[in-house]
Amino acid sequence: MIKISPSILSADFVNLERDIARVSGADMLHVDVMDGCFVPNLTIGVPVVQSIRKCTDLFLDVHLMIDKPVRYVEAFAQAGADLLSVHLEADHPTRIREALRQMDRCGVKKAVALRPITKAEAVLPYLEELDLVLVMTVEPGFGGQAFLEEQLETVSQVRALIDRYHPACRLEVDGGVNAKTAPRVVAAGADTLVAGSAVYGAADPAAAIAALRGE
Fold it and tell me: Is 174 a catalytic residue?
């Protein structure tokens, strides 16, 4: 089953509760946390996630685009995240491992994320304990970017690794996902799609979500 995780990066932050309600038929809500260091942009932090948690029952898919994410795992878990994804490029492998252990202690689902520069094989040391792998199909940091065609191969490679070592793990794709690119990333093996502009830029976000699911 294809799951859709609308990204609030494309929502109207003045009317965030309203815009979250507009995508209540989605499977998850994607929350991009950027620190201005790992990526050249600043977005939201723990207090906003706490507020989001109070206004929705949607599964909170929190994407930590931050340096040394182990420092903030507990805080975001306590704020209401259901899943946390950390970038393999954001710290030394031993610290990524510690971040995943911290997620276990906090009772949140675990994910790692790959920038376009990172090869699929980088997930192998962690794969058997993960709930999700996130493959970026744009360079992280800003919404509304064009889809990177070459990342379809990475999606296919990660799918092959998941099928071989941990079939229960989901494969999420984030970046430039819309009505045109969604079927292609699904064909490459993705089962969870993050979409920002394609949902929030639509006249009817519910219809856009259904279309991305292929309904």
Answer: yes
